[in-house]
Design brief:
This protein is of the alpha/beta class and 193 residues long. It has helices spanning 2-10, 12-34, 50-63, 83-92, 107-113, 119-122, 180-189; strands spanning 41-46, 70-75, 97-101, 136-140, 159-163.
């Protein structure tokens, strides 16, 4: 028995490393299992101030479907010098919904990044006319005061809401069963001050 104990004590570091590895693997496993799946998380890129971010979150949290566990909003002021960096890193690579001012839009972005809208599909949710744009829905009209984007100064440009191509949250726009983006858009359009 003493010889067995001596052999075990000679390789004590192997047992310590084994316990540490088992602990680390357990933590990662629990994190992986409890992490929301893609359909349970929706990401929004919002070009606005923090006050508007809070309003948007409160509105969307009230109407979120039961399968949705997390609403992730990245908020960057449009005049921020690092807007382009955040838009590329947290917007284009991650977001399902974009709320952007006209000044930040390019033809290439519209055609390559955003889903093309289907008037018939969207009209089942809210009043949508194709004259707005074939990629975005007008969310705020410039110089209008009674909207979600009612800031201290009047905004001098229109704000639109867009959907990322291939987002699983866009329902029939991207051949998906999850229409969270459309539900959220309806809630933002019907928002009353």
């Amino acid at each position: 028995m003493k010889q067995v104990l001596k052999k075990i004590l000679k390789k004590w570091y192997v047992y310590v490393v084994g316990v540490i590895l088992a602990s680390v693997v357990s933590v990662y496993f629990v994190h992986f299992v409890s992490m929301p799946r893609n359909e349970a998380t929706i990401s929004i890129f919002l070009a606005s101030n923090n006050e508007t971010k809070k309003k948007v979150f409160d509105i969307l949290d009230d109407v979120k479907p039961s399968y949705l566990r997390e609403i992730d909003i990245t908020n960057v002021e449009p005049n921020n010098t690092e807007f382009g960096y955040y838009f590329a890193q947290k917007g284009l690579n991650k977001a399902d919904i974009f709320v952007l001012p006209e000044s930040k839009l390019t033809d290439e972005m519209l055609s390559k990044q955003f889903a093309t809208l289907d008037q018939e599909y969207l009209s089942t949710y809210f009043t949508y006319t194709s004259e707005q744009t074939n990629h975005g829905i007008l969310l705020h009209e410039k110089d209008k005061e009674d909207t979600l984007f009612n800031l201290k100064e009047e905004l001098e440009e229109n704000y639109y809401i867009f959907f990322r191509k291939n987002s699983i949250h866009c329902g029939n726009l991207n051949n998906s069963n999850f229409d969270t983006s459309i539900i959220f858009t309806k809630a933002l359009l019907n928002y009353e001050i």
